[in-house]
Known about the structure:
Elements (H helix, E strand, L loop, with lengths): L1 H6 L25 E6 L12 E2 L10 E3 L4 H14 L17 H9 L16 E2 L4 E3 L9 H9 L5 E4 L6 E4 L12 H5 L5 E3 L12 E6 L8 E7 L2 E7 L13 H6 L7 E5 L21 H10 L25
Antiparallel strand pairs: 1-2, 1-3, 4-5, 5-8, 6-7, 9-10, 9-12, 10-11
Helix pairs in contact: 2-3
Amino acid sequence: MQAARMIGPEIAPPAMCYYEPLKGSGGKCRACLVKVTAGSEKDPRPMPKLVPACITAVQDGMIVENTVNEDVLETRKGIVEFLLLNHPLDCPVCDQAGECHLQDFSFEHGVSSTRTVEERNTFEPTDLGPNIQLHMNRCILCYRCVYTADQITDGRVHGVMNRGDHAEISTYIEKAIDNDFSGNVIDVCPVGALTDKTYRFKSRVWFSKPVDAHCECTKCSGKATIWYKGEEVIRVTGRKNMWGEVTDFICNGCRFDKKKTSDWVIEGPTNVSRHSVISANKYGANLIKPAFPVLQAARDYKQINDDRDRSFLGIQPALPKSKKK
């Protein structure tokens, strides 16, 4: 995974559970499966099955097929279907819409139809403390929030309960998640399962403007991204790199309490390096156009019969160019 990312985002496999700053993450979602056609220079034999790129060590002479192998592309379509089995169509009301990794994954590698007929697992929203709300319906069990609580907080009080299709994120005996760095589970969540209660339903992400800022803080680095809607600071998040990963985790004081411009030193607009609706109408029009919708449109194109009677609309038909004077 790291070797592919060094080449560029057009080569790097998608990742739903892998999070480089978190030790031990990866190997859960299978979104990054690739085909190794040659193991190494010493042993050029191909690996018999697809392997997850995030936990497979790279070796000299290794040949990996990621974007051209048909088995890989078909498998990713299946992975999208599995991740969406119980995921609701909450995008129109979800705060994560526009920066959701599952949206990107399904848009670039999914299919336009569904085969799901079974009833989905449903859960009621749960408050995991004063500032965090859990929507288990949207969770894909990537374990990122569990690793975050294990590695950067004083004591983890939540985890994955039960097994199989009954597995869910929950706290032990309804104990609240309440420590100085608990808000970081919101940043690492790739979907809208863990949401910021101070930001809920305030704005769509493409209507807000992110800027990099810092402050004097004794608990964390103080480096954050603050999001404006007009002159109002509507939320504060950790700074993310081009892969959507936070490298400097911030404390709850910076995240939830400092909601005024006077609390921060503004550095400048956030650099949105990947194709994203966040950059719409703010950072220029030279965005990367994903190939999936273009291919889908070409595949599903249907000729429309324009010979229907439209006289009741009161619209004069346009003359052909050859007859115009």
